[in-house]
Amino acid sequence: MSLNKKTSSIWSHFTVIDDTHFAKCDICKRKYSFKTSVTNLKTHLVKSHWIQMSAVQPDENDQLIDDPPSAPTVQSILPSTSTSLATTQTETVLINSDQPSTANTAHNLPIVRKKKPAAITTFVPKKMTFDVQKKIDEGLLKLFTKDFQPFKVVEDEGFKNFVKLLNPAYKISDRHTISKVHIPALYQKSLNETKELLTNESLSGCLTTDCWTSRNNIAFISITYHFIDKQFVLRSVLLGCYEFSESHSGLNLCNTIQETLDKWNIDKKKIILAVSDNANNIKSALNSLKVKSLGCFAHTLNLIVQDALKLQLCLIDKIKCIVTHFRKSSRANHKLNMYQTSNGSKAPKKLMQDISTRWNSTYYMLDRFVELEDAIRVLRPFEEATKAVSGSKYMTASIILVISQGLKNVCEQMARKNFTVEVINVLQQLLSGMNHRDRWGVIENSKTLVRCTFLDPRFKSITLSDSMQQSVKNNVIELTAKIISKDRSSNAPLQEDSNSLPEPVDRDENVVSIWKTIDTKVAQLQPTGTVTSRAIIEVQRYLEDSIINRNCDPLKWWFENKHNYPYLNQLARKMLCALGTSVPCERVFSKAGLLLSDRRCNLSSKKSRNLCKHYNK
């Protein structure tokens, strides 16, 4: 069989190996021989993957056949007395002529074009082409990877009838084919594309990890990787969401993370920061990996606020009881809605219950009680901070120190106002938590966060203390000098090769060269300073440049100014991928919770892993 002619739909599941008579299955990666036909490959798909390959019938279009001109007849010249016959059997075309019209002129005679009789196949539904079938299959898979529907939905009678009405020719796959063939193939495709993306675009990265237990009591661990591509866009990749049946010890967590990094060919040296919750086991695992780690800022903020709210636990419990009463009693809830409507509310609001593990849910619950206005004013800045640091599509590490300083200032200002004793006690407890050495101190002393803030053109060094400003400036100059030195050493062989070419030498001093003037000017413009001096100049120029607006995109600014700061730009791309929270991992689990819903609680961990690949878009 010719390797150049691959028209069979078989080749959408196989890849030829280096112009040989062997092909590799895209699903299971096994090799199979094909010499004269693809029967061997087709048999493998049917037996191993339950894929039935059907031949594609070419479309046949109706054609008009022109009969050759014949001698005119009386019937062809005179108008027909049967209109229906003329409209259904023939089509008359008059040919224009510049000559005068006469009865004997052949050009004035009508030419009859007959339609080809309709074949019996035109009344039979056309078979769907392979490309159309594949395109619809890809759309069907989004029903499971994006909308989290159970596989069994394709066997529901209502759904099958709906699909048949949309396209009678489409043959919908059963749930076994979808779960064992289509989803694994989609997973493998996403895996290969993501690996290629990491190889070509990732200069450095930030790791986040978290653990979670599903409603059917299965433990999972998720690991995400975040980096900045060549276009200075922050990218997020899900490295894995695995079932974790072993004990959650630091050693087991360390081994799982290391195996994941090895699978994706990610060097630990490229990881500038690893973010997780504040659990001791994950801290121990990251320390064993010998990577810089940081506790999730949102989690730390949650602990501080929860400790402060314990002072008002009695009041919060009373509010919980009130909320519970209105949520359980339909009559009371109806009266509450009627009261709001009678007071001019167009959209009556329901009372909200809090969640013990999320302090901001308590805030939303209290927010519905306007009598607690002072308490709401105290908690509002913390709610704003939690929202700001919980993003994964923009830089968050560079705003952590700015937010922490802002929260302290706000609490100190409110502590001087005339609040009730209870509110003042909450404020003092919040300030005490933010001054805690093991919580806030770890964040404020993080060198990675300080570098990220310094390299953020929205803040630079304005939020840092004088001693910290000079320290981080020297550190950035040192890192920039290393980049310059590495760049010059990598370009040195190229310069030697270009200089090794023989150049014409002017033996006679009186000979005048047309290149002499420009060569002299270029030589004078060549940098003569050391790599350190070059780094100092670039960093100082960056600090003297205007600070951009807080609402501007810092990554976009760096991309637009990459030629103004060629070396500092590389350091920014390496450092600014750091995140301040492990929220991306928690978002994976919130989606996984939908995957493992009541209708899908029997889903295996392998299928759950495949479906979680929708995270890498």
UniProtKB/TrEMBL annotation:
The principal localisation class reads: nucleus
Keywords attached to this Swiss-Prot or TrEMBL record, sorted alphabetically, are: DNA-binding, Metal-binding, Nucleus, Transcription, Transcription regulation, Zinc, Zinc-finger
One cellular-component annotation, GO: nucleus
The cross-references to InterPro entries, in alphabetical order and at most eight, read:
HATC_C_dom, RNaseH-like_sf, Znf_BED, ZnF_BED_domain_contain, Znf_C2H2_sf
Could you give a single Gene Ontology term from the biological process aspect?
post-embryonic development
Could you tell me which Pfam families the record lists for this protein?
A: Dimer_Tnp_hAT (PF05699), zf-BED (PF02892)
Which residue range or ranges hold the BED-type domain? Answer: 5-56
Which SMART domains does the UniProt record give?
ZnF_BED (SM00614)
Q: Which domain of life is it from?
A: Eukaryota
The GO terms describing molecular function are: DNA binding; protein dimerization activity; zinc ion binding
Instruction: Please state where this protein is localized.
Output: Nucleus
Designated name of the protein = Zinc finger BED domain-containing protein 4-like
Show the taxonomic lineage.
Answer: Eukaryota, Metazoa, Ecdysozoa, Arthropoda, Hexapoda
